[in-house]
Amino acid sequence: MTGQIGRWLPILGWARDYRRATLASDLLAAVIVTIMLIPQSLAYALLAGLPPEAGLYASIVPIFLYTVFGTSRVLAVGPVAVVSLMTAATIGQVAEAGTAGYAVAALTLAFLSGGILLLMGVFRLGFLANFLSHPVVAGFISASGLLIAASQIGPLTGLKAEGHSLLAQLGSLAVQVTAINLPTVLIGGASLGFLFWVRRGLKPLLLRAGLPPRPADMLAKAGPVVAIAASTLAVWGLSLDGAGVAVVGAVPQSLPPFTLPSFDLALLRDLALPAALISLIGFVESVSVGQTLAAKRRQRIVPNQELVALGAANLGASFTGGFPVTGGFARSVVNFDAGAETPAAGAFTAVGLALAALFLTPLIAFLPKATLAATIVVAVLSLVDLSILKRAWGYSRADFAAVAATMAVTLGMGVEAGVSAGVLLSLVLHLYRTSRPHVAEVGLVPGTEHFRNIHRFTVETDPTVLTLRVDESLYFANTRYLEDLILARISGDTGLRHVILMCSAVNEIDLSALETLETLDHRLRDMGVTLHLSEVKGPVMDRLRRTTFLDHLSGQVFVSQFEAFCKLTGRCASQPLGPHAKG
Amino acid sequence: MTGQIGRWLPILGWARDYRRATLASDLLAAVIVTIMLIPQSLAYALLAGLPPEAGLYASIVPIFLYTVFGTSRVLAVGPVAVVSLMTAATIGQVAEAGTAGYAVAALTLAFLSGGILLLMGVFRLGFLANFLSHPVVAGFISASGLLIAASQIGPLTGLKAEGHSLLAQLGSLAVQVTAINLPTVLIGGASLGFLFWVRRGLKPLLLRAGLPPRPADMLAKAGPVVAIAASTLAVWGLSLDGAGVAVVGAVPQSLPPFTLPSFDLALLRDLALPAALISLIGFVESVSVGQTLAAKRRQRIVPNQELVALGAANLGASFTGGFPVTGGFARSVVNFDAGAETPAAGAFTAVGLALAALFLTPLIAFLPKATLAATIVVAVLSLVDLSILKRAWGYSRADFAAVAATMAVTLGMGVEAGVSAGVLLSLVLHLYRTSRPHVAEVGLVPGTEHFRNIHRFTVETDPTVLTLRVDESLYFANTRYLEDLILARISGDTGLRHVILMCSAVNEIDLSALETLETLDHRLRDMGVTLHLSEVKGPVMDRLRRTTFLDHLSGQVFVSQFEAFCKLTGRCASQPLGPHAKG
Predict the structure, then answer these.
(1) For B88-136, how does the pLDDT look when each residue is reduced to its tens digit (9 = 90+)?
(2) Among chain A residues, CA nearest to B137
(3) Which three-class secondary structure state does DSSP give residue A502?
(4) Which member of A146, A582, B295, B547 has the lowest number of beta carbons within 10 Å of its beta carbon?
């Protein structure tokens, strides 16, 4: 029983042995991550189209729940850029930003997403994430980064971008370019410049000043806090909010409120598919971060239990004023680098953020939105990696097509269409590739019992016997191709009497393939040709024995290809059978 | 150039050598098929919800076009039961049966379907039909047969069934059971009884009477014509149309009219997905009939050119008052058995049907719809084969799930949902199966250079070296599983220094798998373990060489597993390397 419970509640594993030394490391990491998360949470809430405090709320209870259910020791859960973008794109279709309906739709999306993740975890459906191939994920994240960066041009200039595609957004900005707010542009530009400098220039400077690499890195990560403090002071001191600079405004001082998602059926139906996509993307992102960090300490995470933990985190978000969350890359790396040793660091971070929500919110009333936009732009540009296009092109055209289509559709038609197109295309291309397996016509290498491709080796063949070696499992995607190939090879070849399928590389024969073999056998029989199998693997043979296929087969099943060739051609009568011939 | 043209116009291949003897056989077959097709065409038009003459029109120009473009010598194209049912289900959602809009929607569906088939043919996308696995097709056709039979209870009793699911139809009939029309039931029952007797009892009788099997078979196939003649005479003689028996009524005497599909964008969008499903189902049905018959004469058909021919046939139907068509099983078998030798038989059939449309239509004004319903029931019950459920259950649970889901959803929610559910489920199950490939931990069989599963053989291993043999190509669906498996196996094993992936069964490594190998290499390196590959196949190695993977790999690529094991363990230093060690 303890094992069962422990599987569902990983906290029981590490909380038992919790020590003072671990506590110190975890507390330090929590302080650093909290400082980093405050601006990030506010910014991603705005990106999702929600009031800034929703970002703080979405980081508190979800982190607690992940602490209880998660298997990664350092993963930090909360709002992340790509999921926030997908949230905005989804909710924008069912409600107007800024309305109460919008916030409820966000809670509902988190609720659905949490439910889907939890169910996938309970039913061990983590494999569904395999539908998202690496090229699709890479293309999608790069394109999303571009979309997010473009969406921040509005807040950085005081304009208002519209539309889900890159072109629509840029177009809507272009027509109102004369309405640019100069103080906003100055604040945005200064923040951007400062943050880029912190990222590129500050760390080397600190290193040269004698700081060890880790603290230097940590300090550089605190850049956004400095930018926020400075720009808030500037707006307050110069009363720039009166000059058209958009500020965060009054944020309630409160712990996360208790909220309820909507159970309106029409809304649930509209949000179901987007929620599934958000769940999958979030899961893939989170698991890859978790695995990367776990491997560095020879630990491991359990993907199906991660689904449960992320599901709980999202359900938590939906009942405490949040929106969809997942494990974030940057914050988890900071947590890891800052020395977090157990998920308790996450719990302490949640406490830190709760304190911030209670006591620090009055300080950010004058925080300009342009500064938050700048932190978003700097964060997401690291997601954009166009080298995947070149890399995929050099490696395989199919992979390139998947990346290119995902990026093009994401940029041109929005995030949901982009992921869907990528998934669909990679499935179709995979099916296309496996639908034409490698099939070699083989013959006997003289003096041996080996059979090799007749086009590559000098081998013995017989005009009455055709041997084909299939280098792939037989299943519904390739079964018709095999049938066409064999019929095409045979039509007109009137001397032929036997066809042998050499199955040494066939790991599986599904029902479609079995029926194709039966049909093929009938068709060959109509032509006066018998069908034989050779070197069928044990598990495949076991399954065939449970059917009537072997009773009706016109030919035989030979244990070895050599035996099949000898018996059917009568060629090796003089030659004693070697030790491999078991039949 | 002639070869190119010949590929697109197979008629050029056979028309050149057309002879008088062939002409006689083809004409005879055409007469027999025409007689069989008249009632069938009328009946399937009614099944599709269209006026009976649409069935004749749908059989004339499409057959001509297939004669020009088709590669099967005997396939007979026209309305078929399952496609007619799908047509009715689709059009029923956008228009009211009996209205002009309904007929135009049918033309538009044929147009879209033709366009899709033609494009698939031109771009050689026939492999897309592989999405439909045998269990899905078998389940779908059986369930459709049941649905069609149930839908004919209405015409057989004078009632009017409603709804797309089996339950809805039966329910709607049950509530109006008191409104049954007795003369209709008598005619329907008599027709049904007669047709079943013709099918089961007449042929043995004719055989006993001394007729050779083929003519006996042909005569038995003419049963529907007799039923139609007798019931039409009965209705006319007894004026049963006045007693509530629904009759076909006035049918125009005309050649197929020139018609135009609708180019309304909203309609085209609504019909696009159903048209794609109809195209795929029709193509799969048609190709399997064509292949079965071609194989009997050692001929072959070209699936991608069949797409072109079926596309042309459907486009033809859309411009001449028809509805979606495909190659039919029963009529093609009759054509084959009657001795058709070239597609010219099809052209003669079209002439026969055109003459019927011009001159015979006045004769069927009193034809009771109940008799046509009886011919449909008798025809489709042969499609229902529930043994596929038992067969799939005995063979594999995954295949059973696909059949059962397809049948249940088709019967419960209609044809489109049924096919979609089946396709989706078989893809998900396939992905699930290949997402967990067989991976064996192998060791050296003492005294040989062979490596075998450590759980099945007594083999030598080394605590510092782990060798895993992967029995599947590495691609996006299984790459995460492999990573999890290796990390799980390694975590905690502190003595390990080397991991060797033995790739003898890996036919492909896609970009997702390549990136996983890179990530794995990094993670293993973080743990102080090096990653090696052995026995990588030539084409896979060529592709890897085009990347930087091999430069960054922590370990080496060994030509043979034996060499890898020897070098890394230093165990076989005393033993001379055998002839297989090429490195």
Answers:
(1) 989 988 888 878 889 999 999 999 999 999 999 998 888 878 778 888 8
(2) A512
(3) strand
(4) A582
Say which of A430, A435, A488 has its CB closest to residue B475: A430
| pLDDT tens profile B472-514 | 888 888 888 888 888 888 877 778 999 999 987 788 898 889 9
Indicate the angle between helix axes B100-122 and B303-319, nearest 10 degrees.
160
Which residues have CB under 8 Å from B236's CB, separation 6+? B366
Q: Which residues pair with A557 in a beta bridge?
A: A533
Q: Quick check: A530 contacting B, CB < 8 Å?
A: no
Q: How far is A364 from chain B (nearest CA, A)?
A: 41
Nearest to A476 among B134, B299, B491 (CB): B134
**Which SS3 state, helix, strand or coil, does residue A255 take?**
coil
Instruction: Label the pairing between strands B77-78 and A557-558.
Output: unpaired
Q: What does pTM read for this prediction? A: 0.75
User: B13 pLDDT exceeds 80?
Assistant: no
CB atoms within 10 A of CB A150: 18
Contact A296 B431 (CB under 8 A): no
Other CB atoms within a 10 A radius of the CB of residue B180 amount to 14
Architecture of the domain whose range is A439-569: 2-Layer Sandwich (3.30)
Contact of A123 with chain B, judged by CB distance below 8 Å, is answered with no
How far is residue B39's CA from residue B56's CA, in Å, rounded to a whole number?
Answer: 9
Is B537 near chain A, with CB under 8 Å?
Answer: no
Percentage with pLDDT > 70 across chain A: 97
Burial of B460 (0-12, 13-18, 19+ CB in 10 A): middle
The three-class DSSP label of residue A364 is helix
* Cα(B465)–Cα(B444) distance, integer angstroms: 12
Where do the structural domains in chain B lie, given as residue ranges?
A: 46-407, 439-569
Q: Say whether residue B517 is in contact with chain A using an 8 A CB cutoff.
A: no
The single residue listed with the structure tokens 């026209």 is B78
pLDDT at residue A573, rounded to an integer: 53
Averaged pLDDT, B387-409: 89
Best probe of the B interface among A510, A519, A545, A548, by most B CBs < 10 A, is A510
Give the whole-angstrom CA distance, residue A522 versus residue A366. Answer: 81
The identity of residue A537, as a single letter, is: K
Token pair in block for residue B419: 């096919």
CA distance A548 to chain B (A): 10
Question: Taking CB atoms and an 8 Å cut-off, how many pairs form between chains A and B?
Answer: 174
- Check CB contact under 8 Å for B128 and A298: no
For tokens 């039409």, the residue is B232
Between chains, do B476 and A426 touch, taking CB under 8 Å as contact?
yes
The sign of the CA dihedral A333, A338, A341, A344 is negative
The whole-angstrom separation of Cα B396 and Cα B45 is 39
Distance in angstroms (rounded) separating the CA atoms of residues B187 and B370: 7
* Chain A residues inside the 8 Å CB shell of B280: none
Residue of A nearest to B515 (CA): A134
- Does the distance separating the beta carbons of A526 and B296 come in below 8 Å? yes
- The distance of Cα B555 from the centroid of its chain, to the nearest Å, equals 48
**Residue B154, Cβ density class (10 Å: 0-12 exposed, 13-18 middle, ≥19 buried):** buried
Is A305 at the interface with chain B, CB within 8 A?
Answer: no
Nearest CA in chain A to B136: A512
Tell whether B393 is within 8 A of chain A (Cβ): no
Q: Which of B135, B295, B399 sits opposite A526 (nearest CB)?
A: B295
The reported pLDDT for the residue numbered B57 is 95
Q: Which of A303, A396, A547 sits opposite B484 (nearest CB)?
A: A303
Higher-confidence position of A171 and A554: A554
3-state SS class at B168: helix
A79: how many CB neighbours lie within 10 A of its CB?
A: 31
> Does residue A235 carry a pLDDT above 70?
yes
